[in-house]
Amino acid sequence: YLVTPLEQEDEVLLAFTIFIICLALYIIKGLVYKQLDVSQSDEDDSGDATAECDSQEEDDLVGTEIEEEKAVQDVESPSYQNESIDTTGFSTRRTKMERRNIVFTRKLFVIYAVSCFLGGMLTGWIGIGVEKVTFFLLTFYHDVDVIAAGLSSITMTGWLSFVAFMLHALCTPEDEGPGPHLSCALRDELNPDGHVFGKVPYEMWMAVLPGTLIGSLGGPIVNAAVGPRNIMIIFVIFLLFDVGYNLYNLADFFTELFGL
Predict the structure, then answer these.
(1) pTM of this structure
(2) Residue 47 confidence (pLDDT) above 60
(3) Exposure of 173 by Cβ count < 10 A (0-12 exposed, 13-18 middle, 19+ buried)?
(4) 76: which residues sit within 8 A by CB, 6+ positions away?
């Protein structure tokens, strides 16, 4: 935001619209080609893994019997036939818990650090971004299921919001709310006192906290009843509706921008 500020509301709305278009396309592609793990629970995943293991054992047993018959008959077999017998054809996708257990290397650390930094800049522009970037990295790069990726992203956003809250609550100017009005920013001609401008909207907090609390309690129940896949479909529909509404509001901006 400090590097390339968006000074007009239309510019912010355009950046937000482009972002949610990319997010909607990613989710649609993941749902259509089954690249997103939208399984309901760990038991579903473990059941699939157990079924795969049972299938592998049955195929191994059949392969052993065939080899014994061939040994009795003394029939030579080309190597590629033996390979086809050993090939089970079951999915090599790791279990859900294995995919959740991410070991960070230096390469991963750099990827996440750069991506989250850019996501933080995006948050400074349009108010959201870093949690969606984290969701993308977890689901695309590590194949983490959407439930764990979503919870991890929202938890990280809560930590960052707490840091931002403390900064704005403690370092606001004296005429922008309660103190202690510490000096936390670099002092310059535009900000000689070193305060962080933008007071905490306590009144708005008190208005939205009850709804947030009720939603957090009822969300898991709705998710269990509807299912993660249907939740993602509803989310995509909401995104597409938001895109259409924003493009309608940006009609005058496009007309002025392209001189139509």
Answers:
(1) 0.73
(2) no
(3) middle
(4) none
